[in-house]
Amino acid sequence: MNAIAAEAISTERLELLPLRVEHAEEMAVVLSDPALHTFIGGAPATESTLRTRYQRLTAGSPDLAVSWLNWVIRLREEDCLTGTVQATVSTSGDGAFAEIAWVVGTPWQGRGIATEAVRDLVDWLCRQPVQDVIAHIHPDHQASAAVAIAAGLTPTDEMHEGEIRWRRALEP
User: Fold this and answer.
1) CA atoms within 13 A on the CB side of 101
2) What is the pLDDT of residues 16-33, one digit of tens each?
3) Using one digit for the tens of pLDDT, what is the confidence trace for 102-112?
4) Strands of the 80-92 sheet, one edge to the other
5) Are 16 and 72 contacting, i.e. CB atoms less than 8 angstroms apart?
């Protein structure tokens, strides 16, 4: 598989912009609420930590069979970043699959931003050489389960590090 590159994606209210190191400053504020780590663990990252992480992510995966795709979510009407979506596309003997994840800052939650962003991310992945989309969601994280359902994913019986594996097979 050739590497897949993140492209800007426009939705009704949002722009998913390919991640840049320069986003670290604004994203450190967006992701600063410790409550965002209730289900995923850890603590908010500093701007410096995010800058280092974003440098690594934007450099790309050292594994040629893996593409790291990362976007920031920009809410047009407020002209601000509100969160991130990501997809790690990997090739195996069965074809390519994408593991996706998302986070929306606390002030913007409950407004359908994650649903809109993830739905359009999955639609974009449908146009890539990807057969399956996978997400791992904590069993008690009702909001993320609702986002996954809206994007056409369904829970499986598989667990991964204490989280339920959700899956959607994509039409070629």
Assistant:
1) 12
2) 999 999 999 999 999 999
3) 999 999 999 99
4) 9-10, 14-18, 66-75, 80-92, 95-104, 132-137, 163-169, 154-160
5) yes
**From the centroid of its chain, how far is CA 30?**
15
Residue count (the chain)? 172
pLDDT digits (tens, 9 = 90+) for 132-154: 999 999 999 999 999 999 999 99
Q: Give the distance from CA 100 to its chain's centroid.
A: 5
b/e per residue 28-44 (b: at least 16 CB within 10 A): bebbeeeebeeeeeeeb
State the average pLDDT over residues 104-125: 97
Give the CATH superfamily of 9-169: Gcn5-related N-acetyltransferase (GNAT) (3.40.630.30)
pTM over 0.85: yes
CA angle 79, 80, 85 (to 5 degrees): 125
Residue type at 21? V
Residue type, 128: Q
